[in-house]
Design brief:
There is one protein chain. The protein is α/β, with parallel strands linked by helices and 811 residues long. Helix content is 40%, strand content 17%. Strand 11 and strand 12 form a beta hairpin. Helix 2 runs parallel beside helix 12.
């Protein structure tokens, strides 16, 4: 007989578990030292997750190496991916990574529903199951390169781009960036590959004659090498030494060369004086720490992007496996979308990885850097995005690209016979304006006209600079929604804007409850909406956000702040509403990750009385909490301020944090600070010692420029609060989206918005940018688009200034 003894606890908890299986579909650099570094980066992250106990079982890496594009075909890559998914039953796949192969596979990935993460740089790798930890990004690289050239006073560029999909996407992106930065392309030459190559020396000589100051090469497979040789030959014969720039092909030097696959000494000699893009930064302390552990485990220290990419991929997948509910491909997809504010090995200091619904491009921050070779030494060009990107739109004073006056006048064209001037079919003169709806569903007690002026300024500048060929008419609907009004009234106003007014798109609604209520109807109607709501649940093909905070990110910042203040045990007071629930869900996740124990969770009514708040705070104190976190829509903010002041007077003066309720408080000493813009009081004494989340940052030159131009146009004091600036940022991206819309319809606008990248933002710390893409609809990009502010010694300001040494870039 088989023994039926009761199993011991040891047998139940320590039984062997089948490993999680994660596939790697690799068609790039097979058999090289470089790709071994990538694999070992993944293995290091997996092993450390197992050793920490983050996952309850081993993670098995199943690798398939095939010969894909450029020298092979995409079909073998697709077959390898299918084998990993269908035969090996992998929960997720890392790779493929080469643009052509990714585009051949992307539709099948999204149909099959197995999350696949790639470091390809195309923005067309997108969809509900396609994730990117991008080894560069064609549109982002283009803007950075244009910004760098403009910063060096270069105006005339000879562009060489390789033939094929990659060259086309790079070229289109750089042409758009060149227009933004006032660069003239004296040539835009397509370089053939392999047997289609034709000598480029004649084109270079013509570029020299045309006054080119710079030669820019956009390549992936091989166009760079012959162009480099031709530039040297032509330069030597003509005595011409243009600035020489390349894209992320620079990794050939740092990665292939650094790993020993290529002769690095020869590469350094050949590219001395060149400038290129890469993703490794000596100042990234997180990457340096990972390299220390990598060397300890594997006996080498690979300072290049692919080792960094490997660890980042492995860390993100391991974290998602730990959060996966249920243990399935869909459960893992959902868990990946809950990856927020993870420190990245890639990029400059503070770069983070965040995913979310319709937010599948992971790197946020300065994830691409500039490097050069000077006097035989490969080195960082120590310049940040903030220093490279334009702080105001080109031509806002009536001067367009290359000094051409725009201001809506038709100039000499008006007298040309082809213009039809004076006829019934004139091509000049007034144009019917574009119409954009504004649905204001809250704060009708505030001077919202001053907020709307941010929108008006953005659209006026877009017309005056020549970005748009006509003005924009704003169509307003002001309806108070929840929590005080009715959702049905807001829905009716939205339908009126869309169906009766026929607007191209709508700004608002803004309150989380309403955006979630309207989300499905927005998707059915296919009219884009842009909102500053903070939920991650306003996601869809026609739902765009420039979020006034993000519940998922605000909670990370305040949890980390408490930890840095020495808090290990925290009590929570949160409002009983959907916003409070979502805040707490994320706060609990971050607290667990950071090692912060939640000792008390007090749920209060948004209309909590002082007595009820006092009871909640006494329960928090009784739990032994060393700090306090207040979460919610904000209706309970005054109650927690007043009652916490009483507890401070009793001796319980602990670190205390809140979220973007601080939008009530920024600029307390300014004539048009947040209290004036909100028409609500901000009691200075009660705020003493509190820390909250907001978006204005005094050091952001884009914000400063916006304030100056706002006053120049509308008069009065400078607006020192988030909402006029939010509206300006929304107007900027909408204007860029309209300019890119083909055709100019609601659906065309949605596609146009997905082409908007790297627009410098008024909000956030210096270097924050706005950008969208396919399945990438959360606009603010940057690890520090949210900032912490406080009142200390009666002064309101940035925590980094008033508590120096406490705050550091996200890591």
């Amino acid at each position: 007989m088989v023994s039926k003894e009761k199993p011991s606890q040891e047998l139940l908890t320590r039984r062997p578990r089948a490993p999680h299986k994660v596939g790697v579909c690799m068609e790039f650099a097979g058999g090289t030292n470089l790709i071994q570094d990538f694999y070992d980066g993944i293995r290091l992250a997996f092993s450390e997750a197992e050793e920490r106990g983050d996952v309850d079982r081993a993670i098995e890496l199943v690798i398939r190496e095939v010969r894909g594009p450029m020298r092979g075909t995409s079909s073998v890559v697709v077959d390898a991916w299918r084998e990993l998914v269908h035969d090996e039953d992998c929960l997720a796949v890392i790779g493929p990574v080469v643009t052509e192969a990714n585009l051949a596979l992307v539709d099948e990935v999204n149909r099959t529903g197995v999350p696949t993460i790639s470091f390809c740089a195309t923005f067309d790798w997108a969809g509900p199951y396609a994730f990117a930890l991008q080894n560069g990004g064609f549109p982002d690289e283009a803007v950075l390169l244009a910004g760098y050239l403009a910063s060096q006073a270069i105006t005339r560029v000879a562009l060489f781009r390789e033939d094929g999909i990659i060259g086309e996407e790079y070229g289109a992106a750089f042409r758009a960036a060149a227009r933004r930065y006032g660069l003239t392309l004296v040539t835009d030459h397509v370089v053939g590959l392999f047997n289609t190559y034709e000598p480029v020396e004649p084109v270079l000589r013509a570029a020299h004659e045309a006054g080119a100051e710079c030669v820019l090469v956009l390549s992936a497979y091989g166009a760079l090498i012959p162009v480099r040789a031709a530039v040297k030959a032509v330069g030597d014969s003509l005595g011409w030494n243009p600035v020489k720039v390349q894209n992320t092909t620079w990794v050939a030097i740092t990665a292939f060369g650094g790993a020993g696959d290529y002769d690095q000494a020869t590469l350094i000699a050949d590219f001395d004086g060149w400038i290129g893009l890469d993703q490794v930064h000596e100042g990234n302390r997180h990457f340096q720490d990972v390299l220390f552990r990598f060397e300890k485990r594997f006996g080498r220290r690979p300072f290049h992007a692919y080792a960094a990419l490997g660890f980042d991929h492995g860390f993100v997948v391991a974290g998602a496996l730990a959060r996966m509910r249920p243990p399935s491909a869909q459960g893992l997809t959902d868990a990946l979308e809950r990856t927020r504010m993870v420190p990245a090995c890639i990029g400059g200091p503070g770069t983070v990885i965040s995913f979310g619904p319709h937010d599948h491009r992971g790197y946020k921050g300065d994830y691409v850097v500039l490097r050069t070779i000077a006097d035989g030494v490969e080195q960082l060009v120590d310049v940040t995005w903030a220093a490279l990107l334009a702080t105001s739109p080109l031509g806002v004073n009536g001067v367009g690209v290359n000094g051409v006056g725009v201001n809506g006048a038709d100039g000499d064209n008006a007298s040309h016979a082809l213009s039809g001037a004076g006829t019934r079919y004139s091509l000049v003169g007034d144009r019917t304006p574009f119409r954009i709806g504004v649905l204001q569903d809250w704060a009708l007690w505030a001077p919202v006209e001053k907020w709307y002026d941010g929108l008006r300024l953005a659209f006026a500048e877009a017309f005056e600079s020549g970005l748009l060929d006509r003005e924009v008419e704003l169509v307003f609907r002001e309806v108070e929604g929840p929590p005080d009004g009715r959702a049905a009234d807001v829905v009716r106003a939205w339908r009126d804007l869309v169906h009766k007014e026929k607007v191209l798109g709508v700004v608002g609604p803004f309150i989380t409850d309403l955006t979630r209520i309207l989300r499905d109807e927005i998707e059915r109607t296919r009219v884009p909406v842009i909102s500053y709501c903070a939920t991650t649940k306003f996601a869809g093909d026609f739902c765009f956000q420039t979020p006034n905070g993000t519940f998922a990110d605000e909670t990370f910042h305040i949890a980390r702040h408490l930890l840095r203040r020495g808090v290990r045990r925290v009590g929570v007071v949160r409002e009983d509403n959907p916003i409070g629930d979502e805040y707490y869900d994320w706060f609990r996740l971050h607290a667990r990750t950071l090692g912060l124990q939640v000792t008390s969770d007090q749920i209060v009514s948004p209309r909590v009385t002082d007595e009820e708040m006092d009871t909640a705070l006494r329960a928090v104190r009784a739990s032994g909490a060393q700090g306090l976190a207040h979460l919610g829509y904000g209706l309970s903010f005054y109650a927690v301020l007043s009652q916490m002041a009483r507890h401070v007077s009793e001796g319980w003066d602990v670190p205390r944090v809140t979220i973007t309720t601080w939008v009530l408080c920024s600029g307390l000493d300014q004539e048009l600070g947040s209290p004036a813009l909100m028409n609500l009081p901000a009691p200075l004494e009660a705020l003493e010692g509190w820390v909250g989340v907001d978006l204005p940052h005094e050091g952001n030159k884009v914000f400063q420029g916006f304030q100056d131009r706002y006053v120049a146009r509308f008069g009065g004091a400078k607006p020192y609060g988030c909402y006029p600036a939010h509206m300006y940022d929304m107007g900027r991206v909408l204007a860029e989206g309209i300019a890119r819309a083909r055709p100019v319809t609601p659906e065309g606008l949605a596609k146009g918005l997905e082409k908007v990248r790297m627009v410098p933002a008024t909000m956030g710390a210096p270097g924050t940018v706005l950008g969208f893409g396919p399945y990438d609809h959360r606009g603010y990009k940057g690890s520090d688009y949210l900032v912490l502010r406080t009142v200390l010694g009666g002064r309101e300001g940035l925590v980094e200034e008033l508590m120096p040494g406490l705050e550091a870039p996200a890591s």
